[in-house]
Design a protein that fits this description.
9 helices; DUF6624; 2 domains; about 190 residues; about 60% helix
Amino acid sequence: MEVKIAQELIQLATHDLAVREQLLQENKLSNGYNPSMEAVHRANAVRLREIIGQIGWPTRSKVGEEASEAAWLIVQHAIGEALFMKSCYELMIVVGDDINPQHLAYLYDRICFFTGKPQRYGTQYDKDKLFPVEDKAAVNKLRAEISLPIITEQRIAEAIEAGNPADLHTDADFREWRRKAGWLSE
């Protein structure tokens, strides 16, 4: 096992969460992408890229459960780097059972959220409402397959209804940010 890399991944994720908590306490996290948080996410993504270059995706067998989870958290928070997030998703698919399948589900849904597409597993919310899902009838079956808790029928019924999930992202600043980050091709 890559002990030094494991320790470093855990440290990077812990720092991410500490900065996030501090910004939450200071009420500086809810108005756009806070520059301090973005700096942490970008620095962590740079280091994770280097680690991936050395050992491939940090799987359970390579770095242990906690560090593998830390790597997932780092990529899940790398929202300013669409190509990186998408490439990590592809790497995670390849390693299969050597990662927590919930991580793959969350990352898939996160990518869908930022690209304005319906999610598959119901892990992403917009203003406390479930972001649109691909198939409301199948979402709980898919969640059960990876040991995610069931979403109540009421919660599913209250899911944001939109003919086009991209319509939820109508804020011009958010749309421009997604374009610059590589989430939108237009």
